[in-house]
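#onboarding

Welcome to the new folks! Below is a worked example of what a typical request in this channel looks like: someone posts a single protein sequence, and someone else replies with the predicted structure as tokens. Don't worry about understanding the tokens yet, we'll cover that in week two.

Example request:
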Amino acid sequence: MASDKNQASSTNPEKLTAASAQSGKTKPEDAASRQPGQPQIQHEPKPPFPKQKLQPPGIEADLQPRPQYLAPNYKAAGKLEEKTALITGGDSGIGRAVAVLYAREGADVAINYLPQEQRDAEETKQVVESCGRRCLLLPGDLTDAKFCKELVERTVRELGKLDILVSNAAHQNRKESLDEVSDEEFDTTFKTNIYAYFRLAKAAIPHMKAGSAIIATSSETGLMGNKMLPDYSATKGAINAFTKALAQSLVKKGIRVNAVAPGPVWTPLNPQDLGHTPDKVAEFGKDTPIGRPAQPEEIAPAYVFLASDADSSYITGIVLNEMGGETTAG
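Example response:
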């Protein structure tokens, strides 16, 4: 195991880029268009992007430009050595970037995704394994209560334990008015975004020890709302409240619970949104103070921070905003 830990902490961006390219899903220049040492705030992709639409659930390999997830400026320090993490939505977007950073910090990871997203999951697996860590692929539908429990049980059975749960997968579709939100759509959004978080946490907690962490992906919409995403915004608000309540419940057990609330992030989620037009996709993130969407590699370090006992042992029950300069009192 010592050699694995050394490999994880010393993995360089060039090696990760090569692993990503070897997966056959991306070109080296797509995976690492920004070189180490350049300030990320000024050197990440900016709109306008190509006008495009992805078919749900959205395949990151088809998105242009490719989301940046290799984080060449990030310096791993073995913060998660000997840890095991389960990450939903870990095939692409924020979840993929978190999986890669966790692996670089020394953790084994299990990632959940929909079966249609297998191509993206295979790329994530190859990059995680290039860090010397194990990557367990667990496709399945999080709206199924039985599957949520099986997901946790299989992670523990095959990787030996569970130290970190990241509830990250989400469903959204913009609507012009509330009249367009069907009961079925409302139900799917809640079952994917908040029911799964509840069910996964309930299944995971009996396996967790002091020093473990639960992290949920919230959104700026959970703090400020979004008129075109009433159901999605409501689930993200519920995630925030559930995070705070669960943190209070588990603090005496030494299990910390926090959430991350990003602003717009360049992932497949929005280009596959049925209510998001190609013109809107092309300008996605333009209205933020920074003038662009975040890249997954910019969001993922917060998940390392909140998972690391060395960095955030006194932090539980927070919603950490990463909103590109937007501010809120929420």
